[in-house]
């Protein structure tokens, strides 16, 4: 079954670019614009606030000239109180605007992160099954949760403060030129030289941050697997081995972080040296100008204060520039996922399935997971509506692949899979899968209540419908014994239930879905003989009137099938009823007698089949 399409958010990441190429501002700038456009009013307001804040912050250093030259030098004491009042007022204004700015943009950034996570998750959920076959779930979780974190620096306070710092530096430059063009020119020359160093440094750091995201996803993926398989790990006393695997992964992350920290530390060192050089030049040249009478002491103090505003963006570049570089790398990795084509993005999928009768036909179907390695070789058969088709064969014979094609998880390389005469490769999948029910061998339950897991097939089903499905599947026999009844939490993957109990919940879920096409993949494999006998009535009810495909080896299920397809190495080698195939003494006969033994055959007289049941 598939979920309905999630509501689209206004945030959109554009496709394009080479996913293997390190992220660059040029490559992701269209994406950045898409992120900023819906929030441009907030960013403009933030920019206004930062300008007010920075302007208010300049009042204090600007006042030092009046304090030194006029109030102290010329004894103009009447200026002291107004000057102090102006400084205090500017400080309060700076504090208020800074608080407002943080509230405005930080919250906007967190909303953006939530939107992007939802968008990526929704897109990942619509990717074809083959994508999940080659990507670990833990890696995908990491990419959904972690890769989008850096974008907060694009629309949060980081980028706005950086832009505000640049504008403040521009204003400071005008003031500095008016005080001393010579000192300003010397300081600016050093800053421009350092900007070249920064550009090279960030170009070097960018692939390091990108690699960190990749390593983190791999380590998270393995950790997720380890936690999910903790019983297997403990059962084989493999805790120490898993510790070493995780330590190796954590070590790779540490190496990457240390490498990036080395680069950032060099940038900080260079910035410190820069500040020292600028300070030494200003002291040397400024001291001579004061001695020559071309610069006042108040002017020199004011110059040094405003010089800090000119040099400050350089230090911001070291911090914010690193964050923005990390954001670009994360945005690029996010774009890689969003560039993956979803199932319904196929331009051939234009047909919507109406109510399905359930006539399924395979016409010379060939399929391969990898180029040149065909796993189905010209399979053809009909499964009329309302019939039960069982698939048998040795492991790797193509049974699950055939079921995957019926479920539209894959598309044939050649040939067609038709449902009611409609080629599944042209069907919009939501319209088809809402009429499809699946009971898998490996039952998956969510960490919720029994009621919630049964209702997953139809979230808006009534309690009466849920209870009826539970009764038919014999869920009531164990659920009502729990203190919380149907509100009992089953735990992650249903760990608090036995294998048979989980399977019964899965069958109840399929009954509630009321599908037209039903797939039972070893649906009774987790049940003991007594439990299986109890729910056979539920299975018979579930299969009644529905086109059913069964992968199973249990006698009770296979012998009742309308047709049995025997597959070997991707080829349909036999087809018929149990009695027909048993009498033919071919491949099915070999599989049957090998599994059940000669003693089981005593229950059947020669030629006896399903008619005797």
Outline:
The protein has helices spanning about 25-35, 40-55, 60-70, 80-125, 130-135, 135-145, 150-155, 155-180, 180-230, 230-235, 240-290, 295-340, 400-405, 430-435, 450-455, 465-470, 475-480, 500-515, 530-545, 555-560, 580-585, 585-600, and strands at about 360-370, 375-385, 390, 415-420, 420-425, 435-440, 515-520, 545-550, 565-570, 570-575. With about 625 residues, the protein is an alpha/beta fold.
What can you tell me about this protein's structure?
The protein is α/β, with parallel strands linked by helices. The chain folds into 2 domains: 298 residues, ABC transporter transmembrane region fold; 144 residues, Rossmann fold (3-Layer(aba) Sandwich). 60% of the residues lie in helices and 10% in strands. It has 22 helices and 10 strands. A 6-stranded mixed beta sheet has the order 6-7-8-3-9-10, sandwiched between helices. It has a 4-stranded antiparallel beta sheet with strand order 2-1-4-5. Strand 4 and strand 5 form a beta hairpin. The longest helix has 54 residues. The two termini are 33 Å apart. The N terminus and C terminus are likely disordered.
